[in-house]
Design a protein that fits this description.
Strand order of the largest sheet: 1-2-3-5-6-7-4
Shape: globular
Helix content: 25-40%
InterPro entries: DUF4442 (IPR027961), HotDog_dom_sf (IPR029069)
Distance between the termini: 47 Å
Protein name: DUF4442 domain-containing protein
Order of helices and strands: EHHHEEHEEHEE
Largest sheet: 7 strands, mixed
Pfam families: DUF4442
Number of helices: 5
CATH topology: Thiol Ester Dehydrase, Chain A
CATH class: Alpha Beta
CATH superfamily: Hotdog Thioesterase
Structural class: alpha+beta
Number of domains: 1
Oligomer: single chain
Length: 175
């Protein structure tokens, strides 16, 4: 259904990061991961497609349970996959640090220029920038924020949605 691509060139990963990347890249492990962490995403059929130092791709299939009455993909389903394409790079980068980092979406905007009438792949191309913000958060007592964009396209290249998630990362106080 989807061509799964996984690159490791250009970046050095810690053993903890590598373990998480391997879990995400394994289809069965990814299903267990989503069922445990984000059950609604598992039910909707979200799929991990690609991760490298530049981008993360998540796919959402067009199927009966994801459709609205207008025969297109429901916007909430698209939002879930879009958010995941920005959250997984953050999860991977946080595994690099020994400190605990709190993270939350503080705002998001979305636009839907076309109807999603097929499978949609969400691409976040700010993986490295996310890593830099998390690095700064790990060394500061101040919250660090970043606006992360992801674009949803159907297989024919039609852009069906664009999201910008505003993430906040803050090092937790030591207990």
């Amino acid at each position: 259904m989807y061509e799964r691509i996984f690159y490791l060139s250009g970046m050095t990963w810690t053993p903890d990061q590598q373990k998480l990347i391997n879990r995400l890249n394994n289809q069965l492990a990814f299903r267990f991961f989503t069922r445990k962490m984000v059950p609604a995403a598992a039910h909707a059929g979200v799929r991990f497609i690609k991760f490298d130092e530049r981008e993360c791709q998540i796919a959402m299939p067009y199927r009966k349970r994801n459709k609205n009455p207008f025969r297109s993909m429901y916007f909430a389903v698209q939002s879930m996959a879009a958010e995941m394409s920005t959250a997984l790079p953050a999860m991977i980068h946080m595994k690099k640090h020994d400190v605990s980092i709190a993270w939350i979406v503080i705002d998001f905007t979305a636009s839907f220029p076309a109807k999603a009438t097929g499978d949609v792949v969400f691409t976040c191309q700010q993986v490295d920038e996310i890593g830099k913000v998390i690095e700064a958060a790990s060394q500061s007592d101040e919250a660090q924020t970043i606006a992360v964009k992801t674009v949803g396209k159907m297989s024919d290249g039609t852009v069906v949605s664009e999201f910008t998630f505003h993430w906040s990362f803050k090092r937790r106080a030591k207990r």
